[in-house]
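pls design
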């Protein structure tokens, strides 16, 4: 075990994700178990820049495992994007003798960590993938994804009831800024007729053709999942275009939005976040740094920040193919 780690700081940054609290708890408890002092940084990089950094004890993380959101708050920091902001952040860490950080967040969080550690390589950073989008290379799952998909599927189940009663076509928009992971999984788990995601070709004509084919087999309602990052536009825009093909408005739209970001984390997310939080402290003690810690084939994996943010996580083509076959 390396003796180099003095004090560890933990923070959450970017969009919140269910399970972040479970990860914070695991970091704090693993660190204190190993007699390391642990600090929280409130509001992510913003708090690092302003020095909003405070000691944490194991009691401080009691009764948070099951809670959504993040008890140490989160933000997207503009000041940290400047050299001066990062200098201030460095000084605050130095003043407290903190030389290791666990950053929990998505792409922007890891990008911040990469830039910071390229300027200040003496600070050891490890990143935990915390984003509902599941779009980080190097990990099969990100913290929050499973809960977000469960929330979306629950919503789709309800939409199906009313879609069925009225013989309506529903477009349900789910989150996923640049990726279709939430949409595809919601589509499979919610039995959607179609999934429109940035990773796969689709067109209004295809959607119209699919609706017509469904009618021929006496399927009079449909639920189509649209990823927020769809290249065909928003669910509202797609619905409006589809309506023009039928000469009447029979579509409805539901945008699930930030509901997917809140709520009690699922069992999968609680366990994943606990494993990753634990592994992050062990990794720092072993001298690992500037890596994202994830899970690959159910084993803890280590991916450089460059790869985690620079490489594209590919959607499973087999799942996409299966989704189409099961919906036909
Ligand atoms: O990255 C997570 C995410 O929820 C995306 O799916 C979405 O595009 C974005 O954050 C929304 O961000 P905000 O919280 O700023 O509205």
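designed seq:
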């Amino acid at each position: 075990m390396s003796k180099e780690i003095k004090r560890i700081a933990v923070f959450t940054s970017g969009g919140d994700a269910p399970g972040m609290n479970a990860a914070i708890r695991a970091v704090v408890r693993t660190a204190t178990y190993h007699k390391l002092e642990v600090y929280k940084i409130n509001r992510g990089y913003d708090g690092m820049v302003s020095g909003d950094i405070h000691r944490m004890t194991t009691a401080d993380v009691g009764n948070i495992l099951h809670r959504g959101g993040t008890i140490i708050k989160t933000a997207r920091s503009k000041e940290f994007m400047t050299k001066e902001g990062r200098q201030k952040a460095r000084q605050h860490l130095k003043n407290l003798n903190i030389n290791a950080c666990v950053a929990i967040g998505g792409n922007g969080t890891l990008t911040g960590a990469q830039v910071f550690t390229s300027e200040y390589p003496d600070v050891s950073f490890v990143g935990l993938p915390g984003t509902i989008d599941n779009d980080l290379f190097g990990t099969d799952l990100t913290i929050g994804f499973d809960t977000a998909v469960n929330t979306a599927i629950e919503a789709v189940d309800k939409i199906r009831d009313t879609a069925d009663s009225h013989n309506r076509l529903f477009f349900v928009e789910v989150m996923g800024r640049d990726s279709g992971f939430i949409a595809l999984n919601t589509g499979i788990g919610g039995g959607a007729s179609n999934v429109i995601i940035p990773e796969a070709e689709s067109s209004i004509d295809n959607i119209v053709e699919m609706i017509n084919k469904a009618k021929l087999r006496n399927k009079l309602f449909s639920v189509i999942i649209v990823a927020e990052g769809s290249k065909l536009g928003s669910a509202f825009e797609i619905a409006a275009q589809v309506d023009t093909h039928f000469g009447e408005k029979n579509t409805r739209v539901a945008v699930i939005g930030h509901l997917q970001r809140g709520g009690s984390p699922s069992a999968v997310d609680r366990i994943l976040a606990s494993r990753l939080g634990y592994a992050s402290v062990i990794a720092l003690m072993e001298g690992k740094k500037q890596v994202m810690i994830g899970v690959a084939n159910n084993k803890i994996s280590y991916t450089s920040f460059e790869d985690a943010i620079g490489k594209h996580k590919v959607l499973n083509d087999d799942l996409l193919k299966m989704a189409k076959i099961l919906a036909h």
